[in-house]
């Protein structure tokens, strides 16, 4: 638990008495949950894809909000304050999804041995200079704006009005990006080959390789967290 | 013991932490800093950072989406 003291406890108690009781939000919660489930059930009969997107999106939103997960902070905090707890969470998520995608892709390739990369489930995109360019642009923007896409949406929902400005910028940026995507595609992306490790070294070796790399990064992050306190005075 | 207030409303993620850091440097041991924020990220990273530094910390939600963080400088 939190390390606290009598001074802090006294301040908290005093403040809790001053602050008027918050309105009970349970009725709203029940109504919204009912609406969500109704829309889900209605969509199941209409379009199975839409209903899955709907329920997965809502569950992801709840998880992100309750866990205060923040992609921007996970990549900024290691450099700014030397704390890597969120970065470790991202690495764990990669490890879990690596195993998940491995199972899905293995099943698909067993079902159809003469598979083509593009036929396997998942998104295969070429990695190259454009990846680095995009990462620098997005990283700069995300740190200045104080959040990535999911963080911005969560905080708008919580009433942090400043991020509405970010959302407007986000919409403009996404529209501009979509408008000159053909340019980047022509100059860089379509000229870069798609690299899919299982194609070259087989499914199991590439799984082991990727898990080893991710675990290595995890331990480096853990060590860095214990060693580093960049802002120590 | 002195009490300091820090208004971090509408400040995005790293700013509340940086403000707290600056203020903590000016304070004496035993002083308490009260931060007022509406950015949920602060709950996570200010609390984590402060604990790591060995200061005492706790927070309450004073309104929907608004928190007060109490930090006692311990060293």
Summarize the structure.
With 233 residues, chain A is mainly α. Chain A contains eleven helices and no strands. In chain B, helix 1 packs parallel to helix 2.
Could you characterize the architecture of this molecule?
- The complex is a heterodimer of chains A (233) and B (75).
- Chain A is mainly α and 233 residues long.
- Chain A has helices at residues 6-18, 26-46, 48-67, 71-80, 85-111, 129-145, 149-158, 162-179, 181-187, 197-201, 203-227.
- Chain A has a domain at 1-67.
- Chain A is 74% helix and 0% strand.
- In chain A, helix 5 packs antiparallel against helix 11 (203-227).
- The longest helix of chain A is centred in the middle third of the chain and has 27 residues, at 85-111.
- The radius of gyration of chain A is 23 Å and the shape is globular.
- The two termini of chain A are 25 Å apart.
- Chain B has a single domain, classed as Translation Initiation Factor IF3.
- In chain B, strand 1, helix 1 and strand 2 (32-37) form a beta-alpha-beta unit.
- The radius of gyration of chain B is 11 Å and the shape is globular.
- The mean pLDDT of chain B is 83.
- The chains are: A mainly alpha (233), B alpha+beta (75).
- At the A-B interface, helix 1, helix 4 and helix 7 of A face helix 1, helix 2, strand 3 and strand 4 of B.
